[in-house]
Amino acid sequence: MADTVLFEFLHTEMVAELWAPDPDPGPGGQKTSLTVLESMGFRVGQTLGERLPQETLGFREELDVLRFLCKDLWVAVFHKQMDSLRTNHQGTYVLQDNSFRLLIPMASGLQYVEEAPKFLAFTCGLLCGTLHTLGFQSLVTAFVTALPACECWRWCLHAH
Amino acid sequence: MGVSDTPTLDKHLSRQQETRTPVVAKNKDLLILTYGALVAQLCKDYEKEEDVNKYLDKMGYGIGTRLVEDFLARSSLRRCHSYSEVTHIIAEVAFKMYLGVTPSVTCKNSSRNEFSLILDKTPLSEFVEMLPAGRSSLCYCSLLCGIIRGALEMVHLAADVTFLQDKLKGDSVTEIGITFLKQPEEKKYRWKQ
Questions:
Q1: What is residue A136's three-state secondary structure?
Q2: Using one digit for the tens of pLDDT, what is the confidence trace for A84-101?
């Protein structure tokens, strides 16, 4: 498991360096920094998707894709399955991880909740990138109410 | 949006997979791919390779200062009595633990403070075929030098750590040089003044 530890340390350092707050952090500045991390995650997600066996690339149904993300991808990347999955059956899905690995070292509870989005940007991008390779345009956003116990992901899924 | 009102699909998560579970990735793939994305991003941000190398080294230093605690917690090591012992532990325990490779160690001088870690391939570069065009002096794994330097500093060992040879640049092996710097005598007593 130690090589996953090295990834976590690298991720923390990336967040610290590539999301450097400038003296007057305005909404515009913050958005740019998140995009850098998201785009790096997207690139990684795309490559992970491309390395999948051919038979997995022919998902027909959105639900198969979601099941894949919740089980196989999440287990491969974070060593656990998603804890729950909800949908409005109109292309929006909410995936919930009650103890998101990259938030666990930070804190527990409501402290640092406003800092948490920095630690989710890369993973949002990763999910987008994998979905893109599987043939789905998506918008992934993450939402944290209390670290690391509750965390929701929502996105709209549309096939290319 | 009404998502919270809809029935959950949790039962789909616990249903047995009927088809074989696709192999998504090995553990190490995520680390290697993420590092590649980082290097690519820094190459976009900085024109000169020296700046990319320095930035990677600086990030590695930050990681090393924290990674050493994780390392010491995972490995029950006895106290080292020589630079040679320290270098062997870096190669045979730390590299193995975090990167799954074991470099060989050579000592380069008679005062026994200069060492080399020799590897068959550059770690973290498994998916790199060649350096980008015009980036021939990019030290792809500068992060590792910073990690080693930061970790050593946290155990009060100052060292210079650099890449001496790099397979990605066409050398026959990848060689990381560690030079332990002797602490000046006066530093030991500074706190007394």
A1: strand
A2: 888 877 778 888 888 888
